[in-house]
Amino acid sequence: MNSCQLWDLKMWALMGAVCLCHCVFGQLFETKMKGAQRLICSVPGSPGLPGKPGPVGTQGAEGNVGIPGRDGRDGRKGEKGEKGDTGLKGRVGPTGKIGERGDRGPAGKRGPTGENGVLGPPGPPGRKGERGLRGKRGPRGTAGICRCGSLVPKSAFSVGITSSYPTEYTPIKFNKVLFNEGGHYNPQTGKFICAYPGIYYFSYDITLANKHLAISLMHNGQHRIKTFDANTGNHDVASGSTVMYLNPEDEVWLEIFYRDQNGLFADPSWADSLFSGFLLYADTNYFDTLAEEYE
């Protein structure tokens, strides 16, 4: 054995002695502290048999009632059971509110025709319709008695007015009819409507007071002639006249053509404002063509 191995052996022996001393002194110290004898560095033995149960002790006092526990969770939904028998019919409940109106259903079959009702009062007259197409020529009539004087077309009028200062830009309604051959002047509208085509003469003589007068002779909405008379503080007379050709349904009237220049004055006791017109001669070509159509 060499020196190195000898040195290792001594070291191991020293370490074993140190461990033995440590174990002995530790056991002695522990025995002194607990006051019981115990084998030094003894190995524990195997556990012994269990002892007999001791006698039953006396019943203790009843404890206080504990706090109620929380409700448990709801159980799972069970399976749907079989349909039960129909119960007895209940009482009729109160009438509910009227619901909203539903969609209109399909039209039903037409019912039987009822009896005619009582004839109602006539309604107001409708608007004047458009002029229709010219009808077919009728059968030739029996020859009549020649009355040559009645074949001459006649048209003439002369009218006055009973109110002063008429409204501007509208036909002046001369409501005092002095003469109206053929009835071609309408006092409700203030217009002369041509019935026979031809050459006509028109004139007016207007008394004015307190205002100036701007008056015009109108032909189908167009100014034919215009006259303007200034008032000088006294009564004055404005006049005008013209000759023109008219076709059937042409309209002629007088009108104030400037605002606040409507000094037309009327006083039935001593002054008149007049509007007149008449047919000079008819259009012979028109009547010849009309006579050929009737033949």
UniProtKB/TrEMBL annotation:
The chain crosses the membrane at residues 12-29. The keyword Secreted applies. Residues 150-286 form the C1q domain. The keyword Transcription regulation does not apply. SUPFAM superfamilies: TNF-like (SSF49842). InterPro entries: C1q_dom, Collagen, Collagen/C1q_domain, Tumour_necrosis_fac-like_dom. Residues 46-141 are annotated as: Disordered. One of its GO terms (cellular component) is collagen trimer. It comes from the Eukaryota. It is found in: Secreted, Extracellular space, Extracellular matrix. SMART domains: C1Q. Keywords: Collagen, Extracellular matrix, Membrane, Secreted, Signal, Transmembrane, Transmembrane helix. Pfam families: C1q, Collagen. Residues 70-88 have a biased composition (Basic and acidic residues). This is C1q domain-containing protein. It comes from Channa striata (Snakehead murrel).
